[in-house]
Each structure stands twice: as structure tokens, then as C-alpha cells.
Amino acid sequence: MEAAFFDLDKTIISRSSSLALSRPMYRAGMVTRGQLLRGAYAQLVYALVGADERKMERLKEGLLQLTKGWDRAEVERLVRDVIVDVIDPYVYQEALDLIAEHRRNARLVFIVSSSPEEVVRPLARHFGISGVIATRARIEDGRYTGELDFYCAGEAKAQAIRDLAARAGIDLGASYAYSDSISDLPMLEAVGHPVAVNPDRELRKVAEERGWEILDFRSPVRLRTRIARTAGQPRTQVTAGVVAAAAAAGILTWVWLRSRTARAPQAA
Question: How far apart are CA 155 and CA 19, in angstroms?
């Protein structure tokens, strides 16, 4: 059995899935107006700034501080109600074409993302994707504790893919992986067919040195009006190239949250 593993942010969709929820969370009283405004500014930062390990670590800690004490059922309900509308205009047509192509070739398709599984799972259902590997928060008495059971990033992504392959009988040597970020190098190295999508500078350099395929996705479309058409379409040919884009899913969220965590470290 073969599979295709897709990163989410900047690979399937053109923006951060987590930050896309900032406005609905503001309306629900889960984030402040200041955080919402900083989130808008962070969209620009996301397009220009890469993410090293230090920034990824600060992103994780900021998110944990923000979510501590949130009710899981409320979060899941909010995400379920709004996620497709929020993400709808930002899905890459080229990604949909690839997903459809892999399904036609009887490959399993998975999203592997550092975004929370509460965000990733509803999107996977709408994309018709086989399953997800995503960050899992620790829950006690129905509330987020501010800790993680699994952080889906870096080498942990690759190990989770290998564990899944062992359980499901997937031939990783014949499988595919897609990502934009050098932080996902272990994930790309875990399969026989790694593909750099909208790669950051470091990943582009590695891909060129190793002769990996490089794809440039440029066509966000409305999911609900186009996804039904992809099953019968041939794979869209895209020009090999690079976009000067952000490396890690959620770096904009880190920028957005940094001020809050500095000002109110004890906030729930």
C-alpha cells in the first residue's frame, strides 16, 4: 500500500489554519480585540519571515498559555461550525488536484500538521482525506491543561509517519510527502518521493541539491465550488519554482500571541 502525506499550512491552504480562526474566536470571547488586530498584522509577517526552532518553541508555548482552561467541547463546536467557511477561499487548486490524483491511484492520503487536531480533522473530512496526524493537547475534566500529549513537528512528524506505516502496511519507499518548510525535512526524508511545495529558502536549497521535485502553488480557490470537480481532472501542471514564504505553520500565530503572553503570563 502507498500513501501521500501533506503538510497543511502553505501546502494545502495558503494561510495559517490556526490564525484563520482568530475572528470567530474573538466573536466567541476566546481572544481579545488586541489579539485579533495583531493577527491581521501577522499575516504580512507570515509572508516575509521564516521560522527557526526557537520561534517554533515560542509559538508552542504561546499557544499553550492561550488555550489553558478552554472548554474542549466549546472549541470543537466553534471549529466545526466555522472552519470550512473560514478556510474556503484559501485552498490551493493544485493541492486538490494532487489529492484527487493520489486517490485515483489508490493511495491513502493524510494531513500531517503541527496545527491542533481539532482544526485538522474537520478539514480532512471535507478534503476527502484518509486520516490526520496532528498536535494533540492534554485534556483534563474536559478542559485544556496548557500541556501537550503530542507536538506534531520536526522529527516527531517523521516518527509518527513511520509508526502509522508500520501499523497500516504502508510502503514508505513508494510514498509521497509534500511540505513548504525546512522544519519538515525529516518528514520529507521519510518517503521515497519528497516534494517541496512553495518552499522556504532553506528547503529550496536542499531540494535543488538532492534533485527533489519543487512545485509552486499559486491558485487558491473556493473549496465548496471546486472540490467536487477535482475527481475527474488530470493533475495540474505547475511551474517549478519558489515563493518567498514562511517556513512553519503558525509562525504568525506566535507573533500574534507574543504580546499577550508577555503582558499576562498568568491568564487562563
Answer: 24
**Closest by Cα among 85, 75, 162 to 118:** 75
Q: Please give the grid coordinates belonging to residue 211.
A: 534533485
Rounded-to-integer distance, Cα 47 and Cα 188, Å: 22
State the helix-helix crossing angle for 251-263 and 53-67, rounded to 10 degrees.
60
Determine which one of 9, 88, 180, 184 is catalytic.
9
Catalytic residue (one of 7, 88, 184, 200): 7
Cα 142 to Cα 260: distance, rounded to the nearest angstrom: 24
Verify whether residue 7 is a known catalytic residue.
Answer: yes
CATH topology for 3-263? Rossmann fold (3.40.50)
Q: Judging by DSSP bridges, how do beta strands 3-6 and 213-215 pair with one another?
A: unpaired
Domain range annotation of the chain:
3-263
**What are 255's strand-pairing partners?**
none
Q: What is the pLDDT of residues 147-204, one digit of tens each?
A: 888 999 899 999 999 999 999 999 999 999 999 999 999 999 999 999 999 999 999 9
Active site residue 171: no
Record the pTM.
Answer: 0.73
